[in-house]
Amino acid sequence: MRNTRHWGLTMSDSHDELNFWRKYVFSTDHKTIGIQYGITALVFLFFGFSLMMMMRWQLAYPGQAIPIIGALLGDTFVNRGAMLPEFYNQLGAMHGTIMVFMGIVPLAVGAFGNFVVPLQIGAADMAFPRLNMMSYQAFVIGGVIMLLSFLAPGGAASSGWTSYAPLSDIATSGQTWWLIGMIFLIFSSLLGAINFIVTIIHLRAEGMTFFRLPFFVWSQLVTAFLLLLAFPALQAAAVFQLMDRLAGTSFFLPSGLVVGGEASAAVGGGSPLLWQHLFWFLAHPEVYVLILPGMGIVAEVIAINTRKPLWGYRSMVYSLVFLGFMSFCVWAHHMFLTGMGTTMSTFFQITTMIISIPSVIILSCLVISLWGGSIRFPVPMLFALAFLPMFGIGGLTGLPLGLAVPDVYLHDSYYVIGHFHYVVAPGTIFAMFAGIYHWYPKATGRAMNESLGKLHFWLSFIFMNGIFMPMMFEGMAGVSRRLFNPEVYNTGLGAHGLTVISSWSAWCLALSQLPFIYNFFASMRKKERAEENPWQATTLEWATPTPPPHGNFPSPPVVERGPYEYSVPGAASDFSPQAVKQGV
Amino acid sequence: MKDPQYGWWLPPDVSTNGWVVDQLLAIIHWFMLALFVGWGIFIIYCLLRFRAREGHSAVYEPIKAAFSKWLEVGVAVAEGVVLVALAMPAWAAIKNITAEVPENPVIIRAVAEQFKWLFHYSGKDGVFGAIGSEFISTDSPAGVDPDDEAGYDDFWVYGLHIPVDRPVITRLSSKDVIHSFKIPVMRLTQDAIPGLEIAVWYQATDTGKFQVGCAQLCGLGHYEMKADFVIHSPEGYQAWLDEEHAALGFDDE
Amino acid sequence: MDAAEVKAHVRVYVLVFSALAVLTIVTVAISYIHLPTPSAIAVAMAVALVKAGLVAAFFMHLASERHIIHWVLILCLAFFAFVMFLPLGTNLGIEPLWPLSR
Amino acid sequence: MSAIDLPYQIEPHPVTGVTSGKLGIWLFLASEVMLFGSLFSSYVLLRVGSGMEFWPSGVEAGLNVPIGTFNTMVLIGSSVTMVMSWASLKMNKLGAFKGYFATTIFLGALFLVVKAFEYSDKFSHGVFPWVGWPEAGDPSTFYALYFTLTGLHALHVLLGILPNLWLLVFGVAMWETDRERFTGRIEIAGLYWHFVDLVWIFLFPVLYLL
Ligand code: HEA
Ligand code: HEA
Ligand code: CUA
Ligand SMILES: [Cu+2]
Questions:
Q1: Which residues lie below 8 Å from residue A271, measured CB to CB, with a gap of 6+?
Q2: Assessment of whether the complete model's pTM goes beyond 0.90
Q3: Which of A300-304, B75-79, D41-45 has the highest mean pLDDT?
Q4: Which CATH superfamily groups domain A22-251+267-543?
Q5: Is B63 inside any structural domain?
Q6: Largest CA distance in chain C
Q7: Which value does ipTM take for this structure?
Q8: Pick from A463, A466, A471, A344: which is nearest to A412 by CA?
Q9: How many CB pairs under 8 A join C and D?
Q10: Are residues B56 and B127 in the same domain?
Q11: Pick from A214, B167, B253, C79: CA 20 to 30 A from residue C37's CA?
Q12: Which residue of A has its CA nearest to B174?
């Protein structure tokens, strides 16, 4: 028995003219909020990339003035146009923070989650629309605080995105802003996570059982649980560090510190490793937050463009849930070199190896799904297909890091940088591009240009590998990460050629984004409307008018079958929508 | 000037333990490569054979349910084997590294600070003076109690000198923030954490001059926190020790 | 839940309140005995667990709550256990070979 | 904007048997469990790491156990009045509800006032978050933890009192228009309040007695 009393009446209201503010800025509609998240996150993403392009100059041509930009920056950042080490460290820390917490998470969860999930499950909106608006606002506030911290005396946070204490405890005031910004971002994610879980559990349309949920929705559900239960640890850590910095406590400061030749005034008694535990308790689940929505998008795109069901849908779901659970007990694989005993390092090696199994199963299922299909190659599919080997490289290089012995050599080298960028950049970012090209017609009613898209794809594909593959070799050659000038070491000198390749690829990658940016804005103004269901997809978001009205579905959909019923033998067309479309 | 020893791949290995690391790196990378190439060929084959075209349509269930169950189980089991085959030898290997230290080691304290490495040698008597952070001063950067006789012949230098073919124990500590003791040619990295003292041991197989680096972000000068790492012949090491000893003002008997 | 049922509940609430008050007195009283630290911790935590259980079960209606809520909490408690015990195990493994200062 | 009327805001979902609001608040509490879990975990780590001999019990460190006990009673009492106010609504007794609910708010405020006195007493004796444990020659993070944990808890109390005040003064109007929704809100406010009480049940012995 289902209560549908509330459905119908909203439609007529939606014609009320809302003023600009309520419609675009203080909207409670999940679609608008999703788009707000998306644009904001893309801008942050590009900003984070720009920071990195300056760093890449310093790495390739250490000590030389940065062209153009160098002349614009203030004395606190550059000396005669050449980057200062303090600026390099700020850029590094802020690049990591911006990309992870203000770029990918808001894009993958805030934007795609918000826009797509209610549509895919056949709901009228998120369960708590006003809470949804508040999460977006908290995200913006946190983001702005982070950006403004560049103006703080001493500049922005400069202790790495990991903010290891005691370094971060004694760092300049930018670190305080980082912590405060972080608390807002955490708060935003917590509110969002609650909203997603309740929405997915409570607001599924009639007939939408758990095993009829599109894989993307599953990935968002698990992601929401990770956010909900992992983020509080960083919140606790941030509170402790704020106390250390502002109230003079010493949670992370051991006794007997001597900083710069002076005995530190701190009471002591704290533990530097406590910060690392709390941070990684969050940050390992966080990396799965970065990848799972991406996997979800890729699964959708692959199913649609192979014209057949995903292979092993159920085992993918089980793997996903298992992966989510396990991600809470592997975090100390980031801490193998803190001197932990053999028993614990064995424990974390084993859990790390175990957690790689569900990833392998999900990836294998996606690959095997190609078998027997009738594969089309629109732009989203190209990005989704490229995701597979790229995530494969990133994931596989996680294995040597997960074993303590090779990690002794590889830890904190460029190999680690290569590993995780393969998962987050050609991995997640490609999945995000796939999602943008895929759902753009849904959000705007216009299709993006295919040729520009293909250009964007091929250039990005080449240069992404051009950036990150050399890093694997640099790491093998023994070059450490976070080095303002790697040439100080003879290992860095020997591998300098790789650095240059990497830098030039990064700048070319930036140029490769121009067709995308143009395409993104120009397509919106196109006269010609896209079809209602351009990909001939089965899932519910394609069963409502485009763009979907306030309240999403003219009448509540009733779901009759699973999400990926393509090429069903005996069916009228090669796709059987989850719900029969009702009159508009 | 570019040193030909360092290129785009692993630097030379002059340690007794390094081969364990190198061998594991090799095994696991071959394994990764095999998996990657295998799946890669499969993908490319699928993309060619199953591309959309006239007269070709998708098959609803190309791989049967029962068969798929088997494949799933197969994947899981294969991964389980990988776990045991790779994780367990690795464990054995790390045990090897931290196992009981052989006879007759050289013991050196390494004290990290922003942004240099200080190496503290116990001198002729082989005993370190009492250590404490309260003793740290410009005269005694290693923090040795000036009243402790055992510390009279202690000396400290800003480069790491060790003899070849003798196990070396390094006791790592830090005065301020976390640093990381990295010697690529020894395949060795270990964090130096304030408030803790962590020991590592290693043994060189060849003489030469290399570098110690810092692998953990420790502030502005992190990138230049390096020190010389000199492996002497046994005689050369003794000569170096005598020289340092003489520099302290002791007249040798 | 109808009014009659609620009335029955009110009695329970009052009982639980008395139990909580008594248990608070008990913990404080025990603390004046000065047990050795480990047993003092064990006793105090046991009493606190009972009290927390009472609050959760009756004031927060967990005893009669739906399973979905129970599952959320069980999941959460598993992770709670991880965050409580794994860092401890990891840190205890770091044994200085020699004491830092004599 | 005409917000969309979503299902399961008032009537429970047929499968889970709870309303969206209730599921939401429990999820929030789960994340709070992890927050306080991390804090307690840090406490244990720091205490064990400091070596037991340097760690004072609350009494040794100069905390006032009778006052702490009194405050515990206050908070437990407020929990009872909270649950009673909800029960009164269920029995359609608006007057009783107002009485109990106001008492809850009063007790919560009383708790904060007592806490403020405890703090200022500590400050006036020169005890601040940054002093560790002043009596001991050796550092411990006892007072740092005491101030941080109780401070964060007090913040939670405050963040409970404010919405409760709003509900008492303005929210009650909803009783006339939408009873079930109002009762639901009180229940949710109650769940949060009991949780805050529950945290104190652990904080009190850990900080004052052990
Ligand atoms: C999205 C992010 C993401 C993902 C998914 C992963 C996935 C994994 N990571 Fe990674 N990791 C990071 C992000 C991520 N990581 C980040 C950001 C850091 C650094 C943080 C910092 O220090 O700043 C890091 C660091 C890091 C370390 C610490 C290294 C160090 O500092 O010394 C370790 C160690 O165990 C590790 C292991 C793993 C493992 C075992 C996986 C496994 O889950 C991977 C499982 C996947 C596979 C095994 C792939 C399967 C492949 C195939 C089946 C082949 C398919 C082939 C084709 C399709 C052609 N990671
Ligand atoms: C999600 C995480 C993420 C992502 C996506 C990236 C993306 C990139 N990262 Fe980064 N990186 C980190 C997370 C990430 N990084 C972290 C955590 C660190 C460690 C920091 C630390 O040491 O503390 C790091 C460190 C790091 C380093 C090491 C620095 C050092 O150790 O000294 C380098 C070096 O080259 C680097 C490079 C790059 C490059 C070239 C990209 C490129 O792939 C970027 C690609 C970006 C785009 C292609 C932008 C696309 C967007 C648009 C085109 C906008 C369009 C806009 C509209 C339409 C409105 N990163
Ligand atoms: Cu010391 Cu980096
Ligand atoms: Cu990890």
A1: A251, A252, A254, B195, C91, D45, D46, D49
A2: yes
A3: A300-304
A4: Cytochrome c oxidase-like, subunit I domain (1.20.210.10)
A5: yes
A6: 71
A7: 0.93
A8: A471
A9: 127
A10: no
A11: C79
A12: A257
